[in-house]
Design brief:
There is one protein chain. This protein has one domain. The chain is 66% helix and 0% strand. The longest helix has 35 residues. 42% of the residues are buried. One of its GO terms (biological process) is polysaccharide biosynthetic process. One of its GO terms (molecular function) is acyltransferase activity, transferring groups other than amino-acyl groups. This is Acyltransferase 3 domain-containing protein.
Amino acid sequence: MLYPADIRPLTGLRFVAAFWLLIFFFWERFDLGPRDQIGLVAAGTYGVDLFFILSGFVLAHVYGPHVEAKTFSWRNFIWARLARIYPLHVACLLAVVAIWAAGNLVGASFKAEAFVVDQIPAHLLLIHAWGVVGSDGWNFPSWSISAEWFAYLTFPISFFVASLFVRRPWLGVVWMAGIFALFAAWMAHHGIELMDMTWQGAILRIVPSFGMGIALWLLGRHLHLPAGVAGLGVAASTIWIAFAASLSWPSEWLWPGLCGVVFFLAETSKANQKPVLASRTWVYLGEISFAAYMVHLPVDIAFYQIVERLVGEPKGGVALVAGALALVISIVAAAIAHAVIEKPARNWLRTHVPAFMSAKPAK
């Protein structure tokens, strides 16, 4: 049975991934102890890998049929993806630069390695997760957007590889799991966990997850699970993630659970299922999830510069209240950024495609 055109639960899942990441980021601001002591909180950083799998699945769903019908335009695809991520990326980068510059004027202190001016061109070119910079910097969560950009550029290759198994799509899933295991073993040989890579070369981190998303779409697009099985799959995958995280297992053990959540949640969107995370509220939150992820660092920097000047470094109950307030402000700021910057800029760019990026010859 085919997926619906709009797989709404996956949009809702995007906010779950973003909120998981925000809890990971703000946890130590709450002054509730090291986040490493709470496995599920510490594992929040792997919400990024959930995004990577989701991205491969959704793009395969939207563009895969066009690739198969040979009506796919790589140039139009790239422009559409650039319109989706670049305006907000630049806006948040400029916000961090402005906060840094203003802070320097009033004597605020910043970590020098996080604000290296020479790295700004790499951020503007979206290549700062390709191993070309020496540290995380500026709006550092955008390393994952740099990795996504690499996945967009190579989408036809990823889809081609996954579609080699179109007659036996389960083999494609096995293949991508093998690629993930190979990459993880290679990184472990160099003393690095694959799912911890950011500026060092996150393009390696995204390849197997993005490819698995495509493979899972190919597996599920004509599949029809019995009623209830999809929901049980979501529950089992979620429990697996919580179990592996709580026991602080190596990050790679969470990956199958992340894949399972995406696959089975998509299955709940089919006929005769009761989809979860598909309400209007969840879908809206999913729509602002990219903005929530991108704006939380500028909000954190600006908010805590003000708080520390007013009350010093917050501790105890004050820290908990301040952290909760920063989290709420991040989500509110995300809603504003989505409405004022992300959505209108995306729509404008998609209706103003330059001739050299259009599939149609210029007249």
